# Entry
Amino acid sequence: MSAAAKLETRSTQELRRIVLSVAGWGLCAIALLGVIFPLLDIVGVVAGRGITALSFSLFTQTTTGAANGLANAIEGTFVITLFAMLIAVPIGVGAGIHLSEYGKNRLGSAIRFMSDTLTGTPSIVLGYFSYIVFITALGWGFSLLAAAITIAILIIPYLARITELALQQVPNPMREAAYALGATDGVVVFKIVLPAASGAVITGGLLGLAISVGETAPLIYTAGWSDQMWTGHFTQSPVAYLTYVIWTFINQPDEHSHQLAYAAAFLVMLVVLAINISVRLMVKRTKFT
Amino acid sequence: MTLRPFRLLVLCISLMIPAALCAVVLFLAGYAGQAISFNGLHFLWDVNWNLGDLYGDPVTVNGITIPPGAEYGVLAFIAGTLASSGLAIFIAVPLSVGAAIFLAEAVPVLENHARDRLSWLPPIRPALAMLVELVAVVPSVVFGLWGIAVLVPFLGHYISPTGNGYGLLAAAIVLALMITPIIASTLYDALLQVPKENRESAFALGSTHFEVVTKAMMPMVRSTLAGGIVLALGRALGETMAVLMVSGGGLNMLPTSLFSPISTIASFIVSQLDSAESDPTSMSVKALAEIAFVLFIITLAVNVAAKLLSSGALNVRSRKA
# Structure
């Protein structure tokens, strides 16, 4: 029987159902393209215009003057991220250890809930909180320390939950065996549980790093902006950062500022996407083996 | 009872998270206190936000020192926030539902048929799912840059009657793109969890594949989907940089059309940094603390709702006997 003859034998209702199905799948396919296309376009536009703006002087000169680069912003983003991680990793991992190992009670679920609430709090609210406390009340002025603490508050809840989930994957008999050999709490966690889950914990740290590099809103009210390199002071000295360049320089009238904005966006995208893609590939590989 | 120093140590570290949250709430509320007592409920339905004459001699109203002529009303920003987030949800839900259904149901069929011949290809479904997830990690400010470079000129050229692309619609589209992966990956994971038996019995009754998805699978994941949508709403309400860059920064007016310039609460806080710094009475800093507190309360309520929905504490799935 040919396809045409087969179609004729179908009732109109059947036909309607088939047409609806085909149309439905078509719309779903278009929706998927609609989600993925902007991502590809963003990467294309930013990479296309960012790469042409890259030059050697970008990494050696500060944003001061006419012939300028991004050295101060690159350095600023680097130190803010570094100190934010130095604060966030011990606290986040420590909290994760508590939640996973000793947090199976009311207190544990209360902390978990508060941690999720902190994750859901808009970053600008955290930034404004830091502005009130560190800049105004404590009188630090726009500074590296205020920026690093703000970013740390932002990352800690992520790190805590990722660490908790990672430690949960470690089978209980390993803990029991260690306790049976007379190991103390600290030894069990640091010699047995944490090493077994180290991959996933490092993953969490990398994701926190990506968040830190890409954040803007909480830094506006804490880091301020500086045309100079970081002075080495933790307070009373504003710091430059890459995302600031993106949102202010794109609104400048001259083409050179636009180029700097695209170059900064390219660098930020490169770090964030590289971290996220490698983390996802890494996690997938460990699942298969 | 033996003392366990290690457990105590990690407990103390862990308690820093609630401490941080409490500090945020207390400082914002405490700092906003004077502004709350000065503005009263007026704050919520006054459209005008006027810093007053910052260079004039401060006047004292009801025992509180403010710049002359200052009034603080946030209705315009609440309206801008709700309008842009609502519109974003309206755009994002069909997009992400379609994308998730296609990923979960249509892609593996292609893969199974062709697996033997096309084994050299990378697995299609994980690759596509990863692309959708990657949308969520693009920094907000890069979305804003793309909005200024691509979206706003497009809207201004082809759609906007005034030729100006900045405004409510641009903000809503950028927000929609940013929250799609949240809804899509929630739904995608839920669809993969639907028991095989339910799918297969629907097939056995003669349903087309699309009917299996819409009539047998979607009703089962309805509450998870609702949770994902509310979670995405919470993210959209607090989104700052991308909205700030494409919204046109409208002040003291309610949005009247898709192309009205708007400000959301979050974007307004960022844009007010300079004036807050230059106010000698620091009243605007306090009023901004109040508006930040309002934003915190709104997102907290939305996130709690999302949690209740996805944990199934509220049974939204209507079961017909």
In short: Chain B has two domains: 31-73+272-315, 77-270. Strands of chain B lie at 49-50, 59-61, 64-66, 71-72. Chain B touches chain A through 84 residues (CB under 8 Å). Chain B has 13 helices and four strands.
